[in-house]
Design brief:
9% strand; 266 residues; two-stranded antiparallel sheet; globular; three-stranded mixed β-sheet; mainly alpha; 48% helix
């Protein structure tokens, strides 16, 4: 009897430790810091460009990250906060786009991928919730359809110079508002894409604001009102007065590759 009690005594701490370890693992679940994707960005994102050549030669972390996202079940996803869901889907879109590019690299533009009737956004290459979806479905059928958040358009990156740049760190729920605002300001400060001519009362804006005007108007009375919080105070004050004409700039579909250079690049 004494021997049995001794065995129980020594096994009890072990059992408790195993119990707490198992529950801690379950509680931890998915890594909402997206740290593995952060490693990819740290290694291959150079300013506002991507070193696709190096990424193609060393895609292990990107592939592992996409595997982790693909393992998430839809029922688990639905239990997350809205910010966690949005961060997950944006990171998935951007990581899947990187993967699509290196699968076809070298290319001068993402638009070279696919055929006439099946462009890059129609390729069933995105693994999500046990299915294979397209980038188009991820953006329009999931992000835009389920979340009234126009700043998504400052965060999803189509691997083109005309896009907003990739954010230097993964999107996370705890930083999402700050990251959205940072992206909006950075994009609107890019003079080759957006500029406010106060003297001529003209807002020269990226075609993104034309393509997704309905999304921006869900949160603002006009496109110019939508951009006011993210431009310089002087320009914002003038935009608030109204009487601005919008002209859309030319969208640069060249690949956002470290080897690509625009005519104004040095």
């Amino acid at each position: 009897m004494r021997r049995v009690l001794l065995i129980r005594f020594f096994l009890r701490p072990f059992s408790i430790a195993v119990f707490f370890a198992a529950n801690a693992a379950r509680a931890e679940g998915f890594d909402h810091t997206h740290a593995l994707y952060g490693k990819v960005l740290q290694q291959f994102l150079k300013g506002d460009r991507v070193d696709y050549k190096a990424l193609k030669a060393g895609p292990a972390d990107l592939n592992a990250y996409l595997d982790r996202l693909a393992a998430v079940k839809e029922e688990e996803f639905k239990k997350w906060s809205q910010s966690e869901q949005i961060a997950f889907l944006i990171n998935l879109y951007n990581a899947a786009t990187l993967s699509l590019i290196i699968d076809h690299y070298p290319v001068k533009s993402i638009k070279e991928i696919g055929g006439f009737f099946s462009g890059p956004w129609s390729q069933a290459t995105v693994r999500v919730f046990g299915k294979t979806a397209t980038l188009g479905h991820l953006e329009h059928g999931m992000l835009r359809a389920n979340y009234e958040e126009p700043r998504i358009h400052f965060a999803v990156v189509c691997a083109s110079i005309g896009c907003p740049p990739l954010h230097a760190e993964p999107y996370t729920a705890d930083k999402l508002e700050k990251q959205f605002d940072e992206q909006a300001r950075a994009f609107l400060a890019a003079k080759d894409k957006n500029s406010i001519d106060v003297q001529k009362r003209v807002a020269n804006l990226s075609p993104i604001f034309k393509w997704f005007e309905k999304d921006f108007l869900k949160k603002a009375k006009s496109v110019t009102a939508a951009i006011q919080p993210y431009v310089a105070p002087e320009a914002a004050a003038e935009l608030a007065k109204g009487d601005f004409k919008i002209k859309y700039t030319e969208y640069d579909w060249n690949l956002n590759d470290t080897g690509s250079r625009t005519p104004n690049s040095k």
